Amino acid sequence: MAYTGLSQFLKLLEKENEVIHVTTSVDTALEITEITDRVTKSGGKALLFTNNGTRFPLLINAYGSEQRMLLALGISSFAETTEDIETIFSKFTGAQTSLLKKLSMLPDLLALSRIMPSYSGKKGKCQEVVYDQPDLNILPVLKCWPHDGGRFITLPMVHTIHPDTGKTNIGMYRMQILDSRSTGMHWQRHKTGASHYEAWKLAGRKMPVTVTLGGDPVYAYSATAPLPENISEYILAGFLRKKKVRLVKCLTNELYVPEDADIVIEGYVDPAEDLVWEGPFGDHTGFYSLADWYPKFHVTCITHRHDAVYPATIVGIPPQEDAFIAMATERIFLSPVKIALQPEITDFHLPDAGVAHNLLIVKLRKNYPGQGMKVLASLFGTGQMMFTKYLIAVSGEVDIRSYEDLARHVFANTDPVRDILFSRGPLDVLDHASDTFSYGGKLGIDATVKMAEEKSPYLKSDHSTANSASVEEAFTNSGLAKSVSTSLLDKGIPVLLISVNLKDDRGIVEKITRFVSNDSITSYVKLFLIVDHTVDVSDPYIVAWQVLGNTDPLRDHSIIDGLSLLIDGTVKAFSKKGFPRKWPNVVCSDEATVKLVDEKWSMYGLGEYIPSPSAGARRLLREGKDEIVVSQD
């Protein structure tokens, strides 16, 4: 189904009882974020804030469930799209030996032509209202978190073009409002937008840039999709909506945008200008991404449709709305990964505790020894999977979305000496744990079912649960840990969760490593995860998020007695060796905002009171402070 704008999508959300209208006056600075964080984490509906101080209603959490994600893409199931992709690939990559077979493909070629974007010389709905003296303050732009550098546009589709090839790109890069007519442009070094910027810099010319907001919600999804460079996002959008995207020319530059977009912000970036200081920003990692130097975007014109809706999202400690966007990518891009990259892959999954790049689970159809390692080595260098820190390959009948079953499978099929692959490579620029910016360690685990040639004498399919009490007692008597959780051991999963206070003893992790090395504990505990004392070790999800975010796998692991793996997931700014970079704090609302929303809750019309997730997250702040923690040597 193709939508003609966010208003039409909104009507469907209303029909399906998937959106709540909040008519109470709300502040775009912090208050909307705190409300949305509560609703999103409780599995709630989309929210439309109609009384936000501007003429534009603000829609948020529109993608925040599987049902709304399917509605946004206009499909009844992800399997529907997967089948369409597989059909196209099989027809155009299969052997076509005869002229008759080649001629039989013409209808398919014609069908594909119907999803290619078209260009119109007329004005679009997105240009019904024109501001040639633009002012970004007319938009309800959010300040999401207390220590954000300012207000940020969070769902922008940024249109750029290469000056030499003419190839276009639509990416989603946060935009910090600098003043009424300019923003920062957060082009990370690995992104196509940054590549286009460097090309315009080399050409010595100003770079045209146009940002769209809204339109068919499939546009925003397509802007986040891991497409190969130089493949138009509007081809994917046309394929998903089964209707081509009609593009119209901007009024003040040569770029083209969807005629049914809700809001259009036209402008340019001058590569000859000095960069601007952008950030910090409470990011999807759950930590503040650090401020840095980025290009400045100058606004030359703003246009919008009469019924424009302003789309927004928030990110922060997972799970958030972006978890469902990642889920769609898992399903939609499985077929291209299988067909174009690794035909043995049958499924892959990005757990939301891994915030997209920190953890990838891949399932394969195994036919020969070493195949798991082959897949690991290949995927660490493939597309956006090159940013993955932890990559686990499995085979067999295990359900990779049932985490307890997955964990049992991994430990039953992994020898920590023979089946673990360490390497170095590029990391997402938002990763804060590596010693070097955007470059660091990686860990691959071959947990595929082992063939005769791969058998290890240390593999063990069942792990005793009878020793969990003695494990807890041993750590209690040692005085090394602040707390220990044997909850996973009690379920037959050989993982021990340990918290420590580095402020009391910066060498505590090394002491625990020596302690478990000299104890029989490694015979039934195969993974030790160490976190700070502020982390609730009774919550495996939060422990997983902290460990995945706070580690460089190569630096922070120890293999104990050739039998077990220990991973140090503590804040490295407080470690014995210190840390060479700034260490960001976690993202959460301040106490004043939490109190404000508590007091106004009955006015929002959101039903039963939902407590603030930030109330629990605040314990993760070092010394109760929100500011960025700097290494203490």
Outline the fold blueprint.
Elements: H1 6-15, E1 19-22, H2 31-41, E2 46-49, E3 58-60, H3 66-73, H4 78-93, H5 99-104, H6 106-113, E4 118-120, E5 129-131, E6 152-153, E7 157-161, E8 168-171, E9 175-179, E10 182-184, H7 192-203, E11 207-213, H8 217-224, H9 233-241, E12 246-249, E13 256-258, E14 263-269, E15 276-278, E16 281-282, E17 288-289, E18 292-294, E19 296-304, E20 310-312, H10 322-332, H11 334-341, E21 345-349, E22 359-364, H12 371-379, E23 390-395, H13 403-412, E24 420-426, E25 439-447, H14 468-478, E26 483-485, E27 495-500, H15 508-517, E28 527-532, H16 540-550, E29 557-560, E30 564-568, H17 591-604, H18 613-617
Parallel strand pairs: 1-2, 3-20, 4-12, 22-23, 23-25, 27-28, 28-30
Antiparallel strand pairs: 2-3, 5-19, 6-9, 7-8, 7-11, 9-10, 10-19, 11-14, 12-13, 14-19, 15-18, 16-17, 21-22, 24-25, 26-27, 29-30
Helix pairs in contact: 4-11, 8-9
